Backbone:
């Protein structure tokens, strides 16, 4: 719920973690974990999520970059999370500036888990 409120406060459209889990499971949403590798090694990540640390997000998600991940499209909805929601908010703003049309900040990894999202290690 907190991440939903963060989205509303930022002017971005809201998506609850529960809805994100359902949309990701249905293949309707790309989930991106912007945490560092050590954080993922310690706790795992959302099943099916792409790992794109905030430090390399612009390079890996910019459609005009030769390093842009093939799994991404500006037309496909994207939801981001980190540990608490701060880095994912910065990442969401960055993706919106790059032209992604539907971008959500899910908040923290704990929000994903609390919503019943599967985790891989």
Residues:
């Amino acid at each position: 719920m907190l991440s939903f409120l963060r989205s509303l406060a930022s002017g971005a459209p809201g998506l609850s973690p529960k809805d994100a889990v359902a949309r990701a499971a249905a293949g309707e949403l790309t989930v991106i974990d912007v945490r560092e590798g050590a954080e993922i090694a310690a706790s795992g990540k959302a099943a099916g999520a792409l790992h794109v640390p905030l430090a390399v997000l612009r390079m890996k998600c910019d459609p005009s970059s030769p390093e842009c991940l093939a799994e991404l499209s500006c037309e496909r909805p994207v939801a981001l999370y980190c540990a608490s929601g701060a880095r994912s908010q910065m990442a969401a703003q960055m993706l919106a500036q790059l032209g992604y049309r539907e971008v959500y900040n899910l908040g923290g990894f704990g929000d994903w888990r609390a919503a019943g999202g599967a985790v891989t290690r």
Observations:
- The chain has one domain: 2-115.
